[in-house]
Write a structure and sequence with these properties.
Blueprint (H helix, E strand, L loop, with lengths): L4 E2 L5 E2 L4 E2 L8 H11 L3 E3 L7 H13 L9 E6 L9 H12 L6 E4 L4 E2 L10 E2 L3 H14 L5 E4 L3 H10 L6 E5 L7 H10 L5 H11 L9 E5 L4 H5 L10 H10 L3 H11 L3 E2 L6 H6 L10 H6 L9 H22 L18 H7 L1 H7 L3
Parallel strand pairs: 3-4, 4-5, 5-6, 6-9, 9-10, 10-11, 11-12
Antiparallel strand pairs: 1-2, 7-8
Helix pairs in contact: 1-2, 2-3, 9-10
This protein binds NADP nicotinamide-adenine-dinucleotide phosphate.
InterPro entries: AKR (IPR020471), AKR4C (IPR044498), Aldo/ket_reductase_CS (IPR018170), NAD(P)_OxRdtase_dom_sf (IPR036812), NADP_OxRdtase_dom (IPR023210)
Keywords: NADP, Oxidoreductase
Protein name: Aldo-keto reductase family 4 member C10-like
């Protein structure tokens, strides 16, 4: 695998990691073994994926068989929403470490700026106020205790990232967000760049090449999840990334598969990528993205791809749409004197088309 990317902790993170979300029990262990055997050195896990125990068994076997040493593998896991409060952080990481059969994680991430009631389903009515600075302080203690060698966040918008950076003693090393040709996170990148919080893979390599060491101040790496667009494909309003005409056309001209093209695009955009597969041939294919590149003029063609709302945005829109329906039904019942009756509600107030067509609105809402 190509050179790793340096984090602001001084540790390095491999540019490609195996995703394990929706990797079915019974298949995920074999996928982890196959991935490590073909050269993956990063496994992205989370307790919410429901398979950390099987991943742990696979890791234990790989270490026991001498396929890889613990210190040569980068393992990421996440703090789930229902543990997003300082008092739950130590127990949550310990559960994950026990499941994965590890002494430490290379990276531990807050799964999102969301808190849910303990043991509850992820629905709006189960959400609680979330004190990110307090949770972050507990995450910093994990780093000090050596349980997590780096700490970071998932699904943080620039606004949330900036708010965290303003109070963090240790700046997050990583912001893991959905990113692929169909959801390029242009605004997030731009804001991160202008705020000086995003140093890309290439930029960071150039920095180390020129300066030898990296600044350890405010910097974080974008770690792209759903790099093949699977989340978008599941969304109500998202086209398939791998089947998009621009992607298929460039892939054809470069004689690469669309999956490899999407992953290579991610690397060239300056992020680490986390493709998920439980299929051995695809696991291998998804690592075959080094030693060639997408020429600049073809990279430019990716900007022609219409940007879809992320699944997060879709959820927000569904929620907003339900709220709208609720308010509208109230107009029938109690407040008919004060609120417009449905017949008077303008037809253009339809949140789904608004969400679909407004790139800015979508990017503002994604990962918030
Ligand atoms: N932090 C977060 O909130 C968050 C959210 C979502 C995901 N993630 C992480 O990111 C990882 C990847 O994201 P993802 O699982 O959404 O999806 P993804 O990697 O974008 O796509 C996975 C899908 O693409 C298929 N696939 C894999 N390689 C392929 C290839 N070469 N050609 C064609 N199809 C291929 C897989 O099927 P097969 O398995 O059958 O090959 C699977 O259906 C997750 O597993 C998880 O670790 C994190």
């Amino acid at each position: 695998m190509a050179a790793s990317v340096l984090l602001n902790t001084g540790a390095s993170i491999p540019p490609v990691g195996l995703g394990t979300w929706r990797a079915e029990p019974g298949l995920v262990g074999a996928a982890v073994c196959a991935a490590v055997k073909v050269g993956y050195r990063h496994i992205d896990c989370a307790p919410s994926y429901g398979n950390e125990k099987e991943v742990g068994l696979a890791l234990e076997k790989l270490f026991r068989d001498g396929v890889v040493k613990r210190e040569d593998l980068f393992v990421t896991s996440k703090l789930w929403y229902s543990n997003n409060a300082p008092q739950y952080v130590p127990e949550a990481i310990q559960t994950t470490l026990d499941e994965l059969q590890l002494e430490y994680l290379d990276l531990y991430l807050i799964h999102g700026p969301i808190r849910l009631e303990k043991g509850s389903a992820p629905t709006p009515e189960n959400s609680l106020p979330c004190d990110i600075p307090a949770t972050w302080a507990a995450m910093e203690k994990l780093r000090e205790a050596g349980k997590a060698r780096a700490i970071g966040v998932n699904n943080f918008s620039c606004r949330k990232l900036e708010a965290l950076l303003a109070v963090a003693r240790m700046p997050p090393a990583v912001n893991q967000v959905e990113c692929h040709p169909g959801w390029q996170q242009a605004r997030l990148r731009e804001l991160c760049r202008s705020a000086g919080v995003h140093l890309s893979v290439e930029h960071r390599s150039q920095l180390t090449a020129h300066h030898g060491t990296l600044p350890t101040g405010i910097c974080s790496v974008v770690l792209a999840y759903s790099p093949l667009g699977s989340t978008a494909a599941a969304g109500v309003n998202a086209p398939s990334v791998l089947g998009h005409p621009v992607v298929t056309s460039i892939a054809g001209r470069l004689q690469r598969t669309t999956a490899r093209l999407a992953l290579r695009w991610g690397l060239q955009m300056g992020q680490s990528v986390l493709p998920k597969s439980t299929d051995e041939a695809r696991i291998k294919e998804n690592l075959d993205i080094f030693g060639w590149s997408i020429p600049e003029e073809l990279m430019a063609e990716f900007s022609e791809i219409e940007q879809a709302c992320s699944l997060h945005c879709s959820f927000l829109c569904i929620f907003a749409h339900l709220m709208f329906l609720f308010v509208r039904s109230c107009s029938y019942c109690c407040f008919s004197l004060y609120l417009p009756r449905p017949s008077r509600v303008p037809h253009h107030i339809d949140l789904f088309p608004w969400c679909k067509s407004s790139r800015l609105s979508c990017s503002e809402q994604s990962s918030e």
